[in-house]
Structures are given as structure tokens and as C-alpha cells.
Amino acid sequence: MAAALKVGGSTLQARLERDVLVAEQSGLLAAYNAGETGLCFGRLVFRDGRDHHIGRIGIREDDAHRTPLVVDWRAEVARPFYLATGHTPMGLRRRRHITTHGRDVTALHDEVLDLEDTTRTGHESRDADEVLLAALDAARTGRMHDIVQTIQAEQDTIIRSPHRGVLVVEGGPGTGKTAVALHRAAYLLYAHREQLAKRAVLIVGPNPAFLGYIGQVLPSLGETGVLLATPGELFPGVRATGTDTPRAAAVKGSAAMADALAQAVRDRQQVPERGAPLIVEHDDGDLILDWDMALEARHKARETDLPHNLARPHFVFRLLDALAEQLADRIGADPYGGPNFLGPDDIALLAKGVATNPAVHAAIDTLWPPLTPEEFLTDYLADPTHLDDEDAAAIRREGGPWTAADVALLDEAAELLGEDDSAARAREEAERQQQIAYAQGVLDVSYASRTYEFEDKEEQDKDASEVLSAHDIIDAERFAERHEEADHRSAAERAAADRTWAFGHIIVDEAQELSAMAWRLLMRRTPSRSMTLVGDPAQTGDSAGVGSWERILAPYVQDRWELVRLGVNYRTPAEIMEVAAEVRRAHDPAFEPPSSVRSTGVKPWERTVDDVVAETVRAVGDELPAEGRLAVIAPAALHPALIAALPDAAHGRVPDLTRPVVLLDPRQAKGLEFDTVLVVDPDAIESGAAHGINDLYVALTRATQRLGVVRRA
Ligand SMILES: Nc1ncnc2c1ncn2[C@@H]1O[C@H](COP(=O)(O)OP(=O)(O)OP(=O)(O)O)[C@@H](O)[C@H]1O
């Protein structure tokens, strides 16, 4: 790859070749890297003698038949690895789990599924879940790992679901929703490589720390055609660094904003006041742009139903015509009432004068200005209209950085405004013509070399006529287009820079957190409506439930969506889950958490103290695992004191989760997990936000081993 990147040359041909090479090499590199960890993790021996090794990627022998050596876990033939049971062995005689460390095999676990088979390997395990439990018990690293070795049957069904529309995956904490969604992306990329590699997959997660946490999973499976983004990163060129009050975010996210913005765009299409026309100085006499004239032009422009910037030329041309006509009428008028003195040439000349007068354009611009989404929204937020007074006050802002909620509004504005890209298109067309000329040159060279190749041959003419050269089957225009297709960055990179990109599939984690305006944005990014949504009503700020999925999805897909549920908690041991469930039961006595797949025998502790910071520091000292990670989850207000007292803890907007101790607020902790978790001042977390109980529930369910609660006296 390094060599490929160094390939010099500024010609189009050299650049194309380099880009193709780099794309190829980076794909290969991802596959090789994936191969370094757990390349092969399973083996299936069938009763009929078939014997397959299963791995993260498929590998074939370099023989004439390209014999499979390792079968990709996503292939149909690998399915019994995840689904076969003693009850339904799916033709299996035995299933082996192979555990490796680097290039060494460190453990083998065999399961015999054919009871008549009496041969033994000595690796038979008594507990079928041994490999799963070992994976769940392992020390955390601060990065999510793939689960291909231990995908459970209920998860496998979702990962391979043939459903083409919107699939909603619901489940309590730690049920593997995120893991399943990521593996589904990997599966879809495998099963529909043709469509998806070109269109890329978008994964939307709640915050940058979470994206950092899950970012390695797909590359570790050899998949790179994926773009990860938070909802605040979905408008190319804009970085959302500001924050909104919860009230402002709620107003900006509400569906009513779509109408308000549409109205506000119409407000920017003005006409002069009646009786107060605009007077424009012009060499051939002042021009009078009045109410009537502008109203007629605006009516015609709006009739096109085009977005603001695209309808604008219609408005401009109508007015230019009307003003030229006004001038002609005035100059050429016959005082005795006869026909106009001016001939068509004179009129054309007058029209040209009007159309090239900058003052005319400046006047028209004040009525129907060309607008960028950024300009428009900045103005709108300074003086929000078409909202009730309280809502308007909540979002009013003069300048300042963009927020995540603004991003959906910018996208909405971009739709309403449209982009007048005629200048850019003219440039592109000129470039295309250049490429065609270049391609013609290449074809001419190939034609010349064809004659040369056959020069020595006796029956030169006959042979030559039977051999098709590039020249015979392709013309210069098509040749140029082909090169253009092979050109450029990866699909994911192109997608990241293009607001109008249509993704092949979108995965949304914490989907119930998204606002109505954010849904509008995401739906525009996936015209095919191929999506996997992940959420848990009990962990989100919304009063959710199936009803809310229907409310969100029905406007876009009617009833073409499917809900699946996961019911087993793989992360949190039973002891911790009991504490978390108790907290919820105080509000909802019937609450049932997902059942934990394991228990550790370690009970969570709780201490009530006056000085929560000092107690937290002591607890960090006591609880810090020898291996693995510890998180302190505390309300944001306590962070300055905790940062001072725990100087080694990672903290901030995107904390480094691979450090031994990390300080987070409850919202940042969403989706993450740690060996040990200390929850500080739970009462403040619970009362700190509208759905504080959900935030506390999230905080209490992040640990894989130990939980401590430091309560304020
Ligand atoms: N089949 C499995 N094999 C091994 N580990 C698994 C399996 N399923 C889930 N896990 C592990 O369980 C943990 C929880 O998974 P994940 O984060 O996907 O859950 P979640 O439902 O998204 O949780 P939350 O809603 O609480 O964020 C992860 O460490 C994941 O790797």
C-alpha cells in the first residue's frame, strides 16, 4: 500500500491506476489483518464425510479447483456451527471450537452431536457453553470484539434475516443488540456484495466514544465499506461542536420544524411593497421593479415546484424579460399611439443591457436571494419564525457553533433550497470532454499497436479482422466513462463527503433517541429503506415501546418493518442485574429485566458517604482490576472534582476507553462496557434529567464483573 501511494505521475491515467491499486491493496490489507486474529475458529465434521474449517474470511487453495480451505462464517454451509443442537444436529457428527492466540492454538473444544459416534478426541467438553462463558468472562480491552466464534442461535437468525426492509432489534441491556447489528452488516456485505460495496453501509451511533468503541468490529471481519457517524456528523463540511439545552434540542427535533423551515424559505421570496417599487439605475433610463411584476414572476417560479435556488433562475428570467419590455415600451413608444418603433434587434440589445447590469441583479437578489443552508439557518435561528413564542425563544441564537440538532435542520434546509449547480455542471462537462479527448488518444494508440503486432504475420489481414481490439467494441466516450467508474475513493469515503449519497444499508444504534427531524435526514439517505434499527425502550429518553416504532416508521415504510427481540443478557451477571432491576421496579413494579446468562457470585456493594469524591478515589484504588477496565460513571457536575482527584483517568468528550480508568457521564456510558463500574451519586443521576431513571439504569448495567455504588449521605 505504501508503495502504491508513492506511485507518482500527475496524468489522469497515472492517478487512476494508483487509486485502483490503493483501493485493492487496502481491501487486501484489511483481510490480512483480520487473518492475524482467529483466522480459523471452528471445524464442522458432517456424518456424510464433509469436513469444513470455519473462519473469519474464506480462503481457497491455490489449486486448479480452488478448493475451499477455510469457509467464511457467513456462508450457508457454516450455519450448523451456530444452529446445530443435539436435538437437531443438521447432519453434523461433531463441532469443534478452536481458540487461538496470535498464530498458536490455545484450546480445542469438541461437541459430539452424533450419539452413535464413539470415537473420542480427548477435547470433548462437558459444558457446551464453555467457549461462550470464557468469552464473556474475559477482561475487557476498551474495544468491542466480534462474536463470530460464539454467535447464539437467536442472534444468528437475526443476523441472517432475509428481511429486506426495516428490521428493528429490541432487547434489554447486554443482549447483544449492537453486536448483532454489526454482524448483520458484515453478513449483508457478504451476501449482497455487489450492491452494498458500491453504496456502502452507514452506522449511526449515539456519540463519538461509542463509535470508537465499536469501530474495530467490522474491519476485524475484513469489512471496510462502512462509514461510522453520529447524527451530528451527517452534514458534510459541518462539525457540530455546540450543545443545545434539552428544551432547544426537543424543539429543533420536532416534526413541526419541517413546516416552519419550509415557510421560512418562502418568506425569503419577496416582492416590493405595493406602491413602493425598487428603482434601478440603468444607462438607458431607470428601471422600475414593482409589486405586480415581482408577484407574477414569483408565482411562475413557485409554480415550477423546484427548491428555492433552482426556482430562482425562473424568477430572475421573468423579471429580466419584464424589465426589458418596460424599457422597450418607454424608448420605442410612438407618441401618436402607433406601433413600437424598435425592431427585434434593438429590443434584443436592450434586453442584453438589462441582463448584464449588475445593479439589476443586485435588486433581484434582495427579493429572492441565492441561499446556502448555513446562511439560511444562521438567519433563521437568530429570528425563528412560524413557531409559538416559547419554542422560538428556546432555540433563538445569534451565531455560535453548530449543534447536533442543527445538523438535521441544515439537511432539511438543503432539501428546501436545492443547489444551483449549473456552474459546477458546466465545469464537469468540460472535464468530461477533456477525458473523452484523452480516451480517444489512448484508443488511437491501441489501434496503432494492433497493426504493429500483426505486421509479421503472413495472413495479417485475415487474423487482424478476427481479433477484436478495444477499438472495435468501445468508443471514446464509453472508454472515458469506464475509467471514471474505476476512479476515486472508496464508496465509504465518497459517501462521507456527499450529502445526497444513497447508502445501501443503514444501521442505527440507540435508534429511539433520534428526533423526528433526524429520521427525515436518515430516510433521505436510504431510498431503498434497507435498515437495521437497534434500541431498548428502558434505556432511552423516550416513552417508547412498539407504539413509538410504529409512529417513527409508518410515515416512511407503512407496515413493511419487522420487530425482533433478544432476551438473554450476555454482559451483566445476575447479581448486578438484580440491583439494576430493583431501581426500575421502584417506578414500575412489573418490570422484568432480560435474564443473565451467568452469575459470578460477587455481590455489588453500596456505600453512603458525605464525601463522594474521596470515597470514589478510595474505591478506584481498591477495585482497579489487574487486567481490564474500570469506569467511574458520575453526573457531569461532579466531573471537575473527580478529574482533579483522579489525574490518570481518561475523560472528556471522546475519552480514551483503552485506558485502565475512564470517567464518564451516564449518557456517554451508553452502549459501553467495563469489567468494573463505580456509579457515583445515583440520586443526582436519577433526578438530573427528564428520564434520569433510564440514565441510571444504563449506568448500573455497564459492568461485566463488579459494581459499586457511592451514594451521597
Ligand atoms: N454470542 C455472543 N458471544 C460472545 N459475546 C457476546 C455474544 N452476544 C453478546 N456478547 C457480548 O455481550 C456484550 C453486550 O453486547 P452488546 O453491547 O451488543 O449489547 P447491547 O444489547 O447492545 O447492550 P446495551 O443496550 O446495554 O448497550 C458484548 O461484550 C458482546 O460482545
Automatic annotation (TrEMBL):
Binding positions (ATP): G171, G172, P173, G174, T175, G176, K177, T178
Domain of life: Bacteria
Residues in UvrD-like helicase ATP-binding domain copies: 150-573
The UniProt record lists the keyword Nucleotide-binding: yes
Keywords: ATP-binding, Helicase, Hydrolase, Nucleotide-binding
GO CC terms in record: cytosol
InterPro entries cross-referenced by the UniProt entry: DNA_helicase_UvrD/REP, P-loop_NTPase, UvrD-like_ATP-bd, UvrD-like_helicase_C
Gene Ontology molecular function: 3'-5' DNA helicase activity; ATP binding; DNA binding; hydrolase activity
GO annotation, biological process: recombinational repair
Pfam families listed in its UniProt record: UvrD-helicase (PF00580), UvrD_C_2 (PF13538)
Protein name: DNA helicase
Organism expressing this protein natively: Streptomyces purpureus
